[in-house]
Amino acid sequence: MATPNAAPTARPALPVRLLGLLLAGAAVSVALGVYSDVHDPTGEQTYTLFFTATINFKVWFATVAVFFALVQILTAMRLFGKIHIPRQVPRWLGDVHRLSGTLAFGFSLPVAYHCLWALGFQSTDTRVLAHSLVGCFFYGIFTVKVLSVRSHGLPDWLLPLVGGATFAALVVIWTTSSVWFWTEFGFPSF
Q: Which residues have C-beta within 8 Å of that of residue 48, sequence separation ≥ 6?
């Protein structure tokens, strides 16, 4: 029991590991931003696969990435008891959670590659500037999320916070690109 004259206990400083995770994420974001700004955009349509144009490819792949990210958010909410459907957590739900995150990230990569290589960092209007900035932020916060999953001794609030920020960033990127494309040009064909 503390004595009445004892000094209050100082709050512990943020763990060094947390600071390292945040610095790693910031380094990824800044590196992508600097590269996309100093790189001379090629303006090329890098690939189309079976799509009629690169923009169609990007709109569809970004939409699929958001779908898998939504699956990951919903499975995380069930795994952490924030929603209770289904009543009992299936044994395979953790695997679905991890796979959906991997697929969301995988579908985002060719889209980001084209943006970085062919278009570069742009600030022609507010939408494009937001898309460029949040795109760089997304991969930085994703880095923090992935590194924090396997790190022990971090605050309990960190993973839900960075997971939510990762999802929110992806939705902003998708809204400023795919949704914008749909409203301006219509739903893309394959």
A: 54, 56, 57
Q: Where are the alpha helices (DSSP H) in 53-157?
A: 54-79, 93-114, 126-149
CA distance 59 to 42: 20
Q: Which two tokens stand for residue 48?
A: 């189309």
Separation CA 100–CA 125 (nearest Å): 33
How far CA 84 is from CA of 73, 75, 77, 80, 156, in Å, comes to 14, 10, 9, 10, 20
Collapsing DSSP to helix, strand or coil, 115 comes out as: helix
- Which amino acid is it at 166? T
pLDDT in tens, 136-161: 999 999 999 999 998 888 888 999 99
Structure tokens at 170: 């992806």
Q: What amino acid occupies position 170?
A: L
DSSP summary character for residue 97: H
Tens digit of pLDDT for each residue in 17-32? 889 999 999 999 999 9
Count, residues in the chain? 190
pTM: 0.87
Amino acid at 153: G
Whole-angstrom distance, CA of residue 187 vs CA of residue 171: 18
Q: Which residues contact 16 (CB under 8 A, 6 or more apart)?
A: none
